[in-house]
């Protein structure tokens, strides 16, 4: 079992603000700009800084994607930030290659890497501990509607799923 801390509480960054622009490269090599390119009315962005947070990432993205599998208006992105150096670029390539083998082709444009300035990214997204996964739920305009960090708990997942469902309800009428 991974010895990471459980959910550590809401991220103190600004719920209700537009998600800061993020440019990343997908497994297929496509450049994606979030939130502008986010597909659907609801987008989950799981932002990580270390390859070792896979279980944390999966604890959120797996149940979320599973709950909305049949809904084309909901999109889940996994974004991995690595350092902007030769080692960082090499790591980004390795991460992309590893993800490509374990992810269905239709999801390749949702698995993103950023070889960039880690400290600048940390400041832009309110990251205080890069060993944790940071989870952002955005509406169709790119506004942050819900945020957490760390490993999912049943309560945290329940709140995430309920928030996403509530965001979709007015759109169903």
Automatic annotation (TrEMBL):
Name of the protein described by the UniProt record: Uncharacterized protein
Species this protein is from: Methanoculleus oceani
InterPro entries: ATP10
Domain of life: Archaea
Pfam families: ATP-synt_10
């Amino acid at each position: 079992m991974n010895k990471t801390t459980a959910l550590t509480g809401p991220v103190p960054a600004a719920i209700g603000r537009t998600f800061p622009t993020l440019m990343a490269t997908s497994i297929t090599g496509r450049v994606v700009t979030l939130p502008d390119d986010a597909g659907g009315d609801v987008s989950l962005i799981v932002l990580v800084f270390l390859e070792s947070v896979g279980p944390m990432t999966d604890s959120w993205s797996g149940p979320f994607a599973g709950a909305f599998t049949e809904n084309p208006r909901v999109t889940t992105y996994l974004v991995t930030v690595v350092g902007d150096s030769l080692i960082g670029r090499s790591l980004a390539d390795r991460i992309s290659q590893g993800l490509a083998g374990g992810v269905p082709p239709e999801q390749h444009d949702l698995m993103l890497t950023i070889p960039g300035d880690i400290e600048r990214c940390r400041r832009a997204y309110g990251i205080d501990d890069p060993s944790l996964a940071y989870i952002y739920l955005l509406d169709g305009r790119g506004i942050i509607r819900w945020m957490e960090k760390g490993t999912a708990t049943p309560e945290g997942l329940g709140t995430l799923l309920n928030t996403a469902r509530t965001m979709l309800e007015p759109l169903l009428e």
